[in-house]
């Protein structure tokens, strides 16, 4: 028997067929095409499920269930997506209606939580009893795995790890608070910090490189730092300080066996992880503990959400 | 059968006999008298256990086990206190040596974790599946209860909830970091903030009240605020802002069913809890969730640690 994992995103919907070794053996995808009514999105999810199964050379008879990772608050008890800002969902009966469409049991979960489960089952945190997965993207997403299971609080809304204030009265965050970690450590924040440095240092190597490329991305500062630009190095150093500050908070709170970092910026590898780890080693409360959290880059990329969603029925 | 719970503190050691309803039926206590060798402390703990049992009109035959809440990192797998700054313990075999002295199984746990378990078993968080307990004392202590059990990470060093940075580059914290929540929201921090305000406003009602009393405590600002002092109100407002900032972080991370606040400052009751709750309601990420965390004062005071310690064998 296989399972289907669906990653329902604001831009794309991807359905994957996942085998018993937690490998994706076929996929199907389409654009999310927002805004549109939720029923149309569910119909696409049902169609993609069938398409993916066909692409795997199987039929729906071979499918045990469908799991869905969805942005926002997914109530795993009621099967409702209580609220999703990105999708403009409010109290959407995703579980019940999709189950009726595909004729299979459906499980739902927040997308970041599903991705964390994917990394814990088959990725960078495989075998870890406790793990945290932090994704540095448009925002700072998080998922908490305790005893191999997703921890999402008593109301299924927990693990908003990007929304911890690390600078009281600091930068405005999209959530309404000021000074959230997300406002300092997301890719969006790094781009903002990079742009500010370019504006203040128009003659820097980084400014010239950005002008040549015609855009600023999460890589701009890292690339310019590697090319020897001191302005870029200052941007990266400051970004790493904020990132490490929140990560050390997470270590002091959770002492997870594995702390895994995903999202585009995690591709910087050791240029990111090494200095971050130095900060954590210096600052963590558990200096005297024999066993320390292992920091690593996420391994599965966008597949984490699909594999995690496909494991929701075993939670 | 009864169980013995011991609260091993930097100032006092208290042993309590706990019955099957998780009530303390007798106690015995002595001074910790630091500094002294750990063996002397263990001998006192064994003697207090016997004394408490005698005070209850029972014998050690009636005792199932002894649980100990101890400051620092207690490895529940090895039975070693890996490190306790307060007690100057390093790799102390508390479990094995105390068990040999009392002739009963011994369980150990960090004292804040034990207190959280006590509140979850018999206090303010009774019946809650998930709960956080925050103690506002010399520091900001924390305990995490998930599915009725203590969560302490893969190395037994988790739940250092006071040591999350809420102001990057902020006030120096005793742990070595700058800007920890503890450096803003502990009773110690409130006293420091109160003293600073008194120094800057020597003619304020609060300054006069402090001079009359001959000291500044965690109550000084709250009392002066109630007497109508605007300087005191500003101190309390600022303290509550920092306290609520960290508590909202905890809600966004854990979405616990119950968030319970202990320590001396929690005796302020609604003067503290009401404005804190207003901050949390305004700032939490889960604005749209039907079910929201319940904030309350801890119910058991210093007994929480004894009752929690007495429940360690059922974890």
Judged by helices, strands and strand pairing, the structural class of chain A is alpha/beta
Characterize the largest beta sheet of chain A: strand count, sense, and whether it forms a barrel.
5 strands, mixed
- Indicate the mean pLDDT of chain A: 97
**Separation, N- and C-terminal Cα atoms of chain A:** 17 Å
Low-confidence stretches of chain A: none
Query: Greatest chain-chain interface?
Result: A-B, 51 and 52 residues
Helix content of chain A: 25-40%
Oligomer: homodimer
The SSE order of chain A reads EEEHEEEEHEHEEEHHHHHEHEH
* Percent strand of chain A: 15-25%
Number of helices of chain A: 10
The coarse silhouette of chain A is globular
- Radius of gyration from the alpha-carbon trace of chain A, in angstroms: 20 Å
Side by side, the strands of the main sheet of chain A go 3-2-1-4-8
Number of strands of chain A: 13
Describe the structure.
The structure is a homodimer of 315-residue chains. Chain A is an alpha/beta fold. The first copy, chain A, is 38% helix and 22% strand. The first copy, chain A, contains 10 helices and 13 strands. In chain A, the strands form 3 sheets. Chain A has a 5-stranded mixed beta sheet with strand order 3-2-1-4-8. The longest helix of chain A has 25 residues, at 230-254. Chain A is globular. The mean pLDDT of chain A is 97.
């Amino acid at each position: 028997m296989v399972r289907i994992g669906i990653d329902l995103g604001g831009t794309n919907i991807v359905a994957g067929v996942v085998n018993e070794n937690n490998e994706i053996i076929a996929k199907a995808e389409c654009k999310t095409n927002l805004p549109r009514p939720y029923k149309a999105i569910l119909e696409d999810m049902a169609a993609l499920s069938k398409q993916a199964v066909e692409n795997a050379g199987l039929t729906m008879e071979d499918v045990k269930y469908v799991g869905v990772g969805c942005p926002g608050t997914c109530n795993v008890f009621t099967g409702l997506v209580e609220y999703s800002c990105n999708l403009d969902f409010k109290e959407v009966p995703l579980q019940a209606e999709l189950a009726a469409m595909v004729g299979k049991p459906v499980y739902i979960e927040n997308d970041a939580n599903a991705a964390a489960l994917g990394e814990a089952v088959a990725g960078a945190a495989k075998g870890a009893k406790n793990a945290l997965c932090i994704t540095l993207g448009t925002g700072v997403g998080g998922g908490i795995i305790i005893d191999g299971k997703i921890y999402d609080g008593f109301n299924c809304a927990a693990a908003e790890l990007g929304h911890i204030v690390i600078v009281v009265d600091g930068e405005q965050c999209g959530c309404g608070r000021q000074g959230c970690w997300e406002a300092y450590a997301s890719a969006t924040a790094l781009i903002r910090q990079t742009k500010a440095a370019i504006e203040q240092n128009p003659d820097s190597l980084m400014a010239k490189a950005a002008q040549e490329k015609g855009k600023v991305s999460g890589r701009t500062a890292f690339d310019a730092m590697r090319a020897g630009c001191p302005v870029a190095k200052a941007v990266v150093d400051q970004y790493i300080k904020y990132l490490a500050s929140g990560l050390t908070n997470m270590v002091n709170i959770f002492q997870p066996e594995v702390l895994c970092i995903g999202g585009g910026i995690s591709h910087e590898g050791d240029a990111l992880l090494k200095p971050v780890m130095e900060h954590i080693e210096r600052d963590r409360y558990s200096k005297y503990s024999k066993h320390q959290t292992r920091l690593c880059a996420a391994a599965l990329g966008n597949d984490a959400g699909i594999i995690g969603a496909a494991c929701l029925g075993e939670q």
